[in-house]
Amino acid sequence: MIKSESKHQFGSKLRAVRERRGVTLKQVAGKAGVSESLVSQIERNKVSPSVDTLLSIADVLGIDYEYLFSDYRKKGKVEIVRASERSVTRDGLVTMSRLSVREEIPGEHSVDAFMLEVAVGGEKGDLEYGHAGREFGVILEGEAELLFGDDVYTLSGGDTVSFASRIPHILKNRGDSVLKAVWIVSPPRQSSHK
User: Fold this and answer.
1) Range of the structural domain that residue 51 is part of
2) What is the DSSP letter of 129?
3) CATH code for the domain of 69
4) Which CATH number belongs to the domain containing residue 131 in this structure?
């Protein structure tokens, strides 16, 4: 338990529900197995309770956990990659500019996003093996050919494509100008830009 202003403000919600239900601090404390003073300090956001204590009090008051944590769910991290700060990788005829922030530990909904530019005659991918996850692409400019396993698909500016990455695949520039696309891979590959 931390003895200073609590960063997460659960106290006002706990107090409002307790008062609405006509329950005293003493009753809540007794049923939750904590001191009346502690419940009072939590309600005034003077201490940050342990998770066990917070959940015990919520259970005593019949508070849904979603409601209790709803304010916390409204906060999150926004990642911005400025155009001037994008990392760029060039591999032969392929240039990839990272559009997303690469997470240290990819989560369930993590993605890698790139601006992909493939020069005339260039290609990206491998027909020998695939990888876990899914890919989604938006062809911005140019003409492309997607070799996906034993199948071949033709793509033009404005087309979108989505597929399971486990099937070996190659994206080729089949036109006479630079192929530009936005490409998203989920989950991110372990080694960048593959």
Assistant:
1) 11-73
2) -
3) 1.10.260.40
4) 2.60.120.10
Residue 51 phi/psi, 5° resolution? Answer: -60, -45
Question: Got the DSSP string for 13-55?
Answer: HHHHHHHHTT--HHHHHHHHTS-HHHHHHHHTTSSB--HHHHH
Q: Say if pTM beats, i.e. exceeds, 0.70.
A: no
In a domain, 35, yes or no: yes
Q: Would the pLDDT of 4 be above 60? A: no
The Cα–Cα gap between 102 and 189 comes to 10
DSSP state of 83: G
Tokens found for residue 117: 């530019």
> Residue 99, SS3?
coil
Asked if residue 91 and residue 53 are part of one domain, the reply reads: no
What's the whole-number mean pLDDT along residues 105-129?
87
Residue at 3 is within a domain: no
The alpha carbons of the chain give a radius of gyration, in whole angstroms, of: 26
